[in-house]
Amino acid sequence: MLTDLVERVRALVFGRRWSRDLSDEMRFHVDQDVAARVRAGADPATARREALLAFGGVERFQEETRDSTGVRPLQDLTADVRFALRSLRRNPGFTATATGVLAIAIGATAAVFCVVHAVLLADLPYPHPDRLVRIYNQNSPTNIWSLSVVDVQALREDHRSFDTFGALRFASFALSGAGEPEQLRGARVSSGFFSGLGVHAEFGRLTSPSDEASGAPPVVVVTDDFARSHFGTAPGAVGKTLNLDGVPSSIVGVLPRGVDDLAGFRSPVWASLKLPIPTRRGPFGYVGIARLKPGVTPAEAGQELRALAGRVFTQWQASFQDQNARYSAFELQRTIIGDSDRQLTLFAGAVVLVLLVAIANVATLMLVRGTARAHELAVRATLGASRPRLARLVIAECLVLTAGATVAGLGLAALAVRGIGSIAPDLPRADAIAVDLPTILVAIGVGIGAGLLISISPVAGVLRGSLAEWKSDARRSGGTREAHTIRGILVAAEFALAVPLLLAAALLGSSFLRLQEVDPGYNPDRGFSIALNLPASRYPDSLSVVAFWRNAMTRVTETPGVLAAGLTTSPPPDNGGDVNNFNLLAHPVANGRAEPVAPWPIVSPGFFKALDLSLLEGRLITDADTGATSPVIVVSRSWANHYFPNEPVIGQRLISGGCTTCPADVVVGVVGDVKYEGLAGSGEGVYTPFVLNGVIRNATLIVRTSASPESFMKPVTEALRGLDPQIPLAATPLRRGLRQALADPGRWTSILGAFAVTALGLSAIGIFGLMSYVVRRQRREIGVRLALGAEPRRIAGMIVGRGMRYVAAGTLVGLGLALLEARWIGALLYGVAPRDPTIILSVTVLLVGAALVACLLPGIRAARIRPLEAIAAD
Fold this sequence. Notes:
Blueprint: H1 2-13, H2 15-39, H3 44-55, H4 58-68, H5 71-89, H6 92-121, E1 132-138, E2 144-145, E3 147-148, H7 149-157, E4 162-176, E5 182-189, H8 191-197, E6 203-204, E7 219-222, H9 224-231, E8 241-244, E9 247-254, E10 261-262, E11 265-266, E12 269-272, E13 284-292, H10 298-315, E14 326-331, H11 332-337, H12 340-372, H13 374-382, H14 387-418, H15 420-423, H16 437-464, H17 467-475, H18 481-517, E15 527-533, H19 542-557, E16 562-568, E17 579-584, E18 597-599, E19 602-603, H20 607-610, E20 615-618, E21 632-636, H21 637-643, E22 653-656, E23 665-671, E24 686-689, E25 698-705, H22 710-723, E26 731-733, H23 734-777, H24 779-787, H25 792-825, H26 837-863, H27 867-873
Parallel strand pairs: 5-12, 7-9, 19-24, 21-23
Antiparallel strand pairs: 1-2, 1-13, 1-14, 3-13, 4-5, 4-8, 4-13, 6-9, 7-12, 8-9, 10-11, 15-25, 15-26, 16-25, 17-18, 17-22, 20-23, 21-24, 22-23
Helix pairs in contact: 2-3, 2-4, 5-14, 6-12, 6-14, 6-16, 12-16, 12-18, 12-23, 13-17, 14-16, 18-23, 18-25, 18-26, 19-22, 23-25, 23-26, 24-27, 25-26
């Protein structure tokens, strides 16, 4: 079988030489037969005629031999492709338009598939990824949160359902040494984290349990990129020392190249995790990653986890009273994806709609081209071409067209994927996004499918039509009634598919505008922030830490042009990391029930003035609030209205953090709302004095200036560097932080808007092309009407009305599809109803307006036809 295939390919590739050799051989045999007949007494002419008849003719023999070798179908296919290329080359306008439209659609489809495949479909790059889970605390189907030190210790010591358990905690490292200090966003991990994922070190080793023991020298594992950028080589980085937070840490290993993301967390430096001795159940902030044992189901693991959570609750009930809280295991891949699947599903649906609009657009062009080629079909049929042969030529032309569009589309997809990092920098598993083999196969499949869909109607016309019909169609003004109907349906389908896209883009755009109008609760103008991280090696106790903060505040506030400065552990608007649970003494939570939580920033007295927050009731935090007597807190207006809607809030007391033995916090003031959970979140928040929370080494300095913040960043950073030149300092205007909070919804809105504009443009081009074709084909009829006294405006109205009927039908169908879409797009919106009548009306007006302009242009052209010229030309 393989030999036959090789022979067929060889015969196809070397067809001419094969045919020439075969002809020479046949002539040799014919000459031999002629010579034999002449020797037998026949004259040469008779002998040659009889020899040729005996062989049946050289050409016939060649044809039969070609068929027997199976080369004929391959040669016919090659001939069809060559014919399609010649035909498309003779019509450069049609070819360029159709190829460009399909290339954009196929490229967008391939690019979105790259993202969807890498983020949602592809398995995690770890052994047996289906056994990897992430452990959370959970007290309801929708409320989950991270682990505490107590939880990590319990899970590490008792995990019979797991082969391994590892923990991770985010960290911010101050890297000092040669050159300017550098701030690194990294992580501290236990050895079980690496072993659970099944990763290995390319050079050196990973962290081990002995590295986590108290008193063990600090060690780190770095990525290949970090090693090469800081040491010039990956193998040479092993054994080198990094000065992290003023503590020398030895590099024991380097991860393989390209491994920068582990379990959905990106970090250049992975330090060994040493757990502190817990004094209460909280605070929470650790990530738990486990690998199920073979054969253990998540449900079986869940039973063990519930039992373990009950034992932990009994032991730590004094500081954590939520009896419903339990440990829950979720598939790691599901937790990494998060809410990205909702957005990616939206954009996958959008690109499918764009693809269908493009296919309908090109199918309309192909139908118009098929009507224009009726004369060619008639000639070929007259010369003996069969219906299957003509249909095959049409299919070949469509497939060649989509093949070129597929190649161009893959190029566009490669360019789009290269920029995915700037478009969606926070997209999970972004490093795995690439135009790979599955993407190429999908693009080829889409191209073939598009080619076959585009060829359906022309092929049906070829198979059903007759020679007389083709000749008649070549002479008549606009083709058959059936062809008119199909073209109208395709154009209407374009508008039906464009409506949901336009409505989704309009809803997201309106939501984005509403987000921009949200009051963040503070004045970002003339303010900037500086993140500060004090290394424990140089600031080992509370005295040294407090002294630095006091000196820093003095130097900053004395800088000319600085109006106010304050410290906080949680700068707005997208930093809800400081979250605390509490229990109101006036309205205590029932025993065993979950306590409410709220953003809980720790702030210095100057913080409120630095953010330009207004005091609504009571007083603000002062330097006298040291906790020597009763601890005090300041709450936001939304918090006060939520928990004390009809009673005074000043003087109310609460227990925070589950510490029942600690003195109660007293509310002394109410300030305006600040968005700590994103601009779409609530404004609830509780502020506690900076000095009451032990040794705080990581804080953000907020500075308000008398003029543009950029002009004061350098003097302030120099003042701080004078205190400690080894601390990394990077100033960021508050306005930039606010823009970053809007960046993600802005990017997604722009992408969907681009899809919607593309669909709208293709739909307008489709109706414009159809009506232009109608005017061109009915030029003589229109000329006769004008010659008989028809008014030009009525001619224009006739053309416009005909086109708008298609538009109206498509728009009505599209509105029905859009109403179905509204059920699941609502979760992505802020301040906008998914069926907002104003937006629906606006989208309808926009679509109909664009279609009206597209129809009006051919209508005006029809009204300007000169009757005599039109009749004479025909």
